[in-house]
Amino acid sequence: MSERPSPPGGGRNTRHPTGIRVVVAILALFALVLGPLGYLMGIDADSHAGSAAEWFTLAFGAAVGIPFLAAAVATVAGDRKAALWALALLVWPVVFVVVIHLFGLAG
């Protein structure tokens, strides 16, 4: 149990919910942009400097690691809804990989 007193009116953390959700939204934006960008750069790596493995690692780290980071931040802050939305971003890598290959955006 925490030694911190409960907030008035219940057991929910209502001190900074907007700030936590802004942080989660910024992290989500990074995951939504850097994941597909890194994947596309990995597919196109032979036409410019850099190896495909480095770009795929960036894509995986951004698309999977950042949502886990956002969920951890929201969980520690006590915002379950933001944590669940951050974990829902784990579907995003499947979506962008399928879209990239179905619509021929690769290479």
Structure description:
The mean pLDDT is 85. By secondary structure, the chain is mainly α. It contains 4 helices and no strands. α1 (17-43) runs parallel beside α4 and α2 packs antiparallel against α3 (80-88). It has one domain (17-102). The chain has helices at 17-43, 52-77, 80-88, 92-102.
Say how many strands there are.
Answer: 0
Counting helices, strands and paired strands, the structural category is mainly alpha
Rg, rounded, reads 18 Å
Strand content: under 5%
Enumerate how many helices there are, as a single number. 4
Name the quaternary structure: single chain
Shape: elongated
Let me know the average pLDDT: 85
Helix content: 55-70%
Integer count of domains: 1
List unreliable stretches of 5+ residues.
Answer: none
The helix/strand series, from N terminus to C terminus, equals: HHHH
Transmembrane segments: 20-43, 55-77, 84-106
Keywords: Membrane, Transmembrane, Transmembrane helix
Relevant terms:
mainly alpha
In short:
This protein has 107 residues and is an all-alpha fold. The chain contains four helices and no strands.
